[in-house]
């Protein structure tokens, strides 16, 4: 096992009827708060009203910054930073899914510096402090509610970049699974794919030869994400299914699976980010296209690892490792299809002749993420397996 | 899933050569520190010197309070509180296993109040604040390094009581698996039993009917504790085996397994605490005696749960649930015997005629822990299954 630091200051408040706690949990950090949210679905579901009432009860003045879109964009983050500075807010509260939380993180980091926030993403500047951040999560997917990662798209340069810093970890995150009853089958499925990808990125990129503790943890989460997603699809208002699904998505990327694995990477995200940056496809839909192709490519290098997953998660019988690996990947792909996720570029209306352009787009982030082995040629080869 | 709060402020620094960080991690909380340790094994292994040098380098004045014994006693805690108050220490640093850390927690809580510390254990007073606590862990077992629990024995009244409070969570814990190379097979085995018991207490006492996420997590840890313990027994200086074992023991009782299970209890610990309180047996040895008996007693009430463990951990084939349960318990007991742990009262030199006295002793803690269903009669019946 490799040395690691596990530091998780986020207080998770999980369960039914927990949203009214957001006010008293946030006011600890300040009375003037930037309230970040999305395209307004929280107004339809009544969550907006609950949050505003809780803020009022706690004596918080909420400065609103709604309108975050999926694949959140830099221009909107910059606006948020401007508003935060003008109003001298003391904290940021995010109410929404991963896009909203990631935007709020970028604002929390950008509001305390003079330079442009994009410099953080280009790793030209490092984050030294941030405004305190609290969250109400309304979508099980990204894990952003309990980690220090954030992803933002620079829509001018078509760059979807992600970075991480422990200071970006929310201080409080409220997770009420019943807020996700209204999430449709498409975004439920994308969330499942996203959470699975977070586990599998680490599972397949660790270079440690023997990681039995993390393996069982990851395999258990993979099984549970698929099983709970199936239950949600069958009955969208099944509280326990939504709860299992939500908690799995959080655990999938809160540092626990990675602890001890040494350096791990996000090569599938690397490629997906270019799909989202250029075509603005939903993140989970991009991932369900990239994952089977990347896994097929990678299985040749390390079939034993893929065979283990196939055996423990998909109950593939012992056989030649390469065969087991291929069966496992086929099972995963079949499951993606079962939950109506795209599994090839064509399903996203992305023509094959765009492959070189996509591969070219990956190179900026490959540098930021120190994934230089993902050359244009290698990415092209992987993308051809996604057709 | 039941509502829960998961709040884990402990910064875990895990790996080789991490002990020299204790000074700079502790000085953040103060320059005058009570340094709590055990019977002196850290002097033989050189850990004491490393810690003292690190304190010195950080400008810390360390007031020493060594001599903590296994099954730590109240009188020694009270002495520590006196020293802490006299010297106005600003923080407490514990270097040792669970007994040392638990003593340090009790001192950290007792040093900031005027009343006697035992009142916390009798739940006559509640903990409102504590001195900051940092740790270096040298024994994989209790999980105290990442939780808010502490257990102390009042040797005058023969009461071994345990309580929990989130304020008791260490702020930093340093875990270097190589510090455990010198832990002999007896205490390695006791540690394994202790860690297993922490998982199984929750696994079998949750009243939630369906907890698939927590189940996979707990089953994975049970498998890994047994496997890594076997590897340690085969080669005591196998770093990865020690590391897997140590991290499992931490994860076994850091709140993660319990999150969402609702109210869980420690009935096996309840009975074991009386064995330790009266006969001062090692905690793990007491548990390996109590566990098979308690499980046999309990399996009648909920055979499905025991059958699931048998199937997923011991690969017992599908059959009648009661039979599967019995096979699973037999497998666990056989493993305890394989690692040379006692599995009946006789092996601890405790005569059967003492059973009523032991059962009587459990009643005080049963009240504190709200386990009133564990009447004298019920405990006697369980203990008769431990002969």
List keywords for this structure.
two-stranded antiparallel ribbon; six-stranded parallel β-sheet; alpha/beta; 387 residues; 15 helices; homodimer; Rossmann fold; 2 domains; Dehydroquinate synthase-like, alpha domain
Walk me through the topology.
The structure is a homodimer of 387-residue chains.
Chain A: E1 4-14, H1 22-27, E2 32-37, H2 41-45, H3 47-57, E3 61-65, H4 74-86, E4 91-96, H5 98-110, H6 118-121, E5 133-137, E6 149-154, E7 159-164, E8 172-175, H7 185-205, H8 212-234, H9 239-251, H10 267-279, H11 283-299, H12 303-314, H13 321-338, H14 355-368, H15 376-384
Q: How is the largest sheet of chain A built, in terms of strand order?
A: 1-8-5-4-2-3
CATH class of the largest domain in chain A: Mainly Alpha
Q: How much of the residues of chain A is beta strand, in percent?
A: 5-15%
Largest interface chains and counts: A-B, 39 and 39 residues
The helix count of chain A comes to 15
Spell the H/E element sequence of chain A.
EHEHHEHEHHEEEEHHHHHHHHH
- Tell me the overall shape of chain A: globular
Gyration radius of chain A (Cα, Å) is 20 Å
CATH superfamily of the largest domain in chain A: Dehydroquinate synthase-like - alpha domain
Cα end-to-end separation of chain A = 37 Å
Main beta sheet strand tally, sense and closure of chain A = 6 strands, parallel
CATH architecture field of the largest domain in chain A: Up-down Bundle
Number of strands of chain A: 8
As an assembly, this protein is homodimer
Return the domain count of chain A: 2
The secondary-structure class of chain A comes to alpha/beta
Give start-end ranges of low-pLDDT stretches of chain A.
Answer: none
């Amino acid at each position: 096992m490799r040395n690691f630091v596990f530091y998780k200051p986020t207080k998770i408040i999980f369960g039914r009827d927990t949203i009214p706690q957001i006010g008293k949990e946030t006011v600890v950090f300040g009375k003037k708060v930037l309230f970040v949210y999305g395209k307004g679905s929280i107004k339809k579901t009544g969550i907006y009203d609950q949050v505003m009432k809780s803020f009022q009860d706690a004596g918080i003045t909420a400065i609103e910054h709604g309108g975050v879109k999926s694949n959140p964009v830099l221009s909107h983050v910059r606006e948020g930073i401007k508003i935060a500075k003008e109003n001298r807010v003391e904290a940021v509260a995010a109410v929404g899914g991963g896009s909203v939380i990631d935007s709020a993180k970028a604002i929390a980091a950008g509001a305390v510096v003079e330079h442009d926030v994009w410099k953080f993403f280009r790793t030209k500047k490092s984050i030294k402090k941030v405004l305190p951040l609290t969250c109400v999560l309304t979508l099980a997917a990204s894990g952003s509610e309990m980690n220090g990662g954030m992803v933002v798209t620079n829509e001018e340069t078509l760059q979807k970049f992600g970075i991480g810093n422990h200071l970006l970890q929310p201080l409080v995150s409220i997770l009420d699974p019943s807020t996700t009853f209204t999430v449709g089958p498409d975004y439920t499925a994308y969330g499942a794919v996203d959470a699975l990808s977070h586990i599998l990125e680490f599972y397949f990129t660790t270079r440690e030869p023997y990681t039995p503790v993390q393996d069982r943890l990851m395999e258990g989460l993979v099984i549970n994400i698929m099983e709970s997603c199936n239950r949600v699809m069958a009955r969208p208002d099944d509280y326990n299914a939504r709860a299992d699904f939500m908690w799995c998505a959080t655990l999938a990327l809160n540092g626990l699976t990675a602890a001890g694995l040494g350096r791990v990477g996000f090569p599938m995200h690397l490629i997906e980010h270019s799909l989202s940056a250029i075509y603005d496809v939903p993140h989970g839909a991009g991932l369900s296209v990239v994952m089977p192709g990347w896994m097929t490519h990678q299985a040749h290098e390390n079939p034993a690892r893929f065979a283990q997953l196939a055996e423990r998660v998909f109950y593939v019988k012992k056989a030649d490792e390469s065969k087991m690996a291929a069966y496992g990947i086929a099972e995963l792909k079949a499951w993606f299809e079962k939950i109506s996720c795209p599994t090839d570029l064509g399903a996203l209306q992305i023509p094959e002749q765009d492959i070189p352009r996509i591969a070219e787009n990956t190179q900026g982030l490959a540098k930021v993420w120190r994934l230089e082995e993902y050359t244009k040629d290698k990415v092209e080869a992987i993308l051809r397996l996604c057709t």
